C-alpha cells in the first residue's frame, strides 16, 4: 500500500526482456495501456499516467524474454486504501477480432471460390467458359488474406495491439502456431489455382487438382476441428469437408456466368457438375456431421454455447442451400441442359442466391475462430482457477481445482508480505456470495506437510464470482485476513 | 399474574437469542495516562462447552499490569520486552506482563463470570483511537474461541465475527 501515487513503476526481471503490452487497471476496472516506458534489458521503467485514484490497481505486464517466449503477470498495489482488486480480463481489441474475422472470410473466399473455381473451370467447364475474372479476384483476395491472417494470429496470440503488426516477435510467434501451415499451404493452393487459370486447358488440369487438394490440406492443418481427438478421424474429415465445399461452391459462379452468357459448351459444364455434385455433397455432409458430433458432444451444447448457436445458424442456412441446390439439380438441370431459356434463367438466379448463402456461411464459419467448441469448453472448465491475495502482513495464492461448480479442492500457499515463510497456526477458508444471499461456507484447512494448506471435498454450489477470505491465525492472538475473489465456472 | 409470567418468558427467549454476545470490557472508555481497571465479561463458553481458560494479550502501551486472582482459577502471566521504554513514577520501564492467563477453572456455558486486571494506560497511547485487548477463550474438549479480530478503521464492530474487546481512549485528564 502506498500513501501517494508513485511517479513510475519499475519491474526487474531475471533475464533481459522486451515489453509487449503494459496495462494499468484502475480500481473501477477501466484498463489503460501504458506506452511510455524505458527498458535497459532487465529493468523496465514505466511512467505512471497520473493521476491515480484511491484504491487497488493492477499493473499487468506481458513481455518477451530473450528466448522469445512471451511471459505475463500482474502486480497489485493500492493507493491510499485497499479496495477489491479490479477484474483483469484480457483486454481484447474488438478491431483486432474484426480484422481476424475479415481475413479469415477472405481466406475462405480464396480457397473455396478461388481454388474451387479454378478447379471447376479446368475440369468441368466446356469450350466456352465464364467467371474467370471473378475466380482470379477471389484467388488474389485469398493470397492477400493468407499472410495477413498469419500476422493477426501472431498479434492475437500475444495479446498485442495493432501497432505491433510489423514487429519481428509477432511474426515469430505466428510462425510458432499451427496456423502457419494453413497460411503456407493455402498460399500454395492459391498460387497453383492462378497457374491453372493462366495455363492452357490441358496442362492446367493437374495443377487445378493439386490446388484443390492443397486447399483441403490447408484447412486440415489448423483450427478447432483439426485439433480435436481422434486426429486420424478429424483431420481427414476436415480435409474432405473442405474439398467438398471448394468443389461445390467454387463451381457455382463460373457455372452461373457461363450459363447466362449462353457460352458454347455451357450444357457440358452443367452436365459434368450435376453428375458429380451428388456424391460430393454426400461426402461433404457426412464429414460435416462427424465433425459436428465430435465438437458439440451434447445436444444441449447446441443451444447453450456460442459455438453451438453458430452451428445451428449454419445448419439452417445449409438446409436452405440444399433446398435450392436440390431444386436446381432435380427440377431445373434437365430442361436447362436441353437448352430451355426460361429454365436457364431460373437456374442462374437460383445459383446466384446459392452463392450469396455460401458467403454468409463462410462468415459464420469464420466466426468459430472466436468460439471454442463445447468439447474444448468442457476441458477448459476442468482447469483450476487461482487468485492472489495480499495485505502488508501476508500474501496467499489460492488455487481451486477444478475451477467449476461441484466438489473441488482448494490449495493455499502462504507467504509473509515480504515473500518470507509464513508459519500459520490455523487457516480457515471462507467462501461467500453476499449479493446472492449465500451464507459463508467455512472450512478449516489441513496441512498435508508440503508447506501448503488444503481443503478437500469442498462443494461449491453455484457458478460466478465468489468472495474468498482466508483467516490466517499467525499467533494465538493475531489473525490476518486476506480477501479476494474467484470466478467459478459452470 | 399469568400474563406477567408469559412476558417474562418472552424476555428470556430474547435473552437466549443473543447468546452469541461477545467477550467485552465493562468500561469501554478511559483517558490515557491513567490507571484503568479492565473487567473482561465472559458471557458464555465456546459452542456450549464450559470455559476452562481465559488468556488476554496486553497491547503495547499498557504497562504495570496486575491481574486479580480468582478463586478456583490458576493465574499465570507471561512477561516480555516492550517495544519501547515507558516512564512510570520517574522510573523507566521497558518490560513487563504481556499476557495474562487464568486457567484450570470451569465456567459452565450457562453461567457468567468476569476476569479483572488493573493496568496503567501510558500517555503514549493515541487518544481518540480504540485500544484492543485480544482474548483467547479455551474450553472443555479443546474448543477455542478467539476474540482477536480487529475491525478496520471506520468498520462496524459487528462486521467481524469475533472482535477483540475494545477500549476507546479519551484525551488525558
Automatic annotation (TrEMBL), chain B:
The keyword Signal applies. Residues 22-169 form the YncI copper-binding domain. InterPro entries: YcnI-copper_dom, YcnI-like_sf. Pfam families: DUF1775. The keyword Cell inner membrane does not apply. Keywords: Signal. Residues 154-173 are annotated as: Disordered. It comes from the Bacteria. Residues 1-21 form the signal peptide. This is YcnI family protein. It comes from Mesorhizobium retamae.
